[in-house]
Design brief:
Layout lengths: L1 H6 L6 H21 L4 H24 L5 H4 L1 H17 L9 H26 L4 H22 L14 H17 L4 H22 L15
Helix pairs in contact: 2-3, 2-5, 2-6, 3-5, 3-7, 6-7, 6-8, 6-9, 7-8, 8-9
Amino acid sequence: MIRDALSGSFELPVYFDYPATFIWALSGAVLAARLRMDPTGVALIALVTAAGGGLLRDGLFLQVGPPALIRTPVYIILIGLAVVIVILAGARVLHFRHFDEIVVLIDLFGLGTYAIVGLELSLSVGLSVLAAIFVGTVNAVGGGLLRDIILRRTPELLQPGSPITIVAITGCMVYAVMTRLFALPGGLAGLSAILLVIFIRTVALRLGLRTAPIRGFAQADE
């Protein structure tokens, strides 16, 4: 079974997709609740945190039909469940065991996974490799971008910090090279690219590696 999966095309397993959607929705709902938003605000932030990247991918770039969010009720149910939990549990949700660690783990696996998903979907509808890399990157980081824009704060991925966007781009480039240049199966290439993204992100977090402002501009306004 593992050999068949690696030799075929890359597919997002539902046993990762659904839990990741729920955890991201829960983290977005908790953030909105901490900012003292009402239930509508909590639901909106949960939605864009969990599904913003896919909405940008399907609604803005690919436009090949209804977004994945509304093609099945599962995503809406998972996001709604996360919102209800935060509303009913209140601050007690902050005391869920290992909640923060689970969010970090999902982020770690999700960055590369959703980047490759967006890239592969883009290639399947005829986009060029460069365009597909762009869409794949947006698919990976779009949720956090939309969340921060709605909250009217500088998006996390645009500020100096642990590398996010550049790592997603790297994963997409590796996948594209492995499948287009070396003709490796999508399953094997996807797993390799995801593992590379996880490795780079883990090393960056462990060693405290951070991006920095462009040299000469860091103290320009001081």
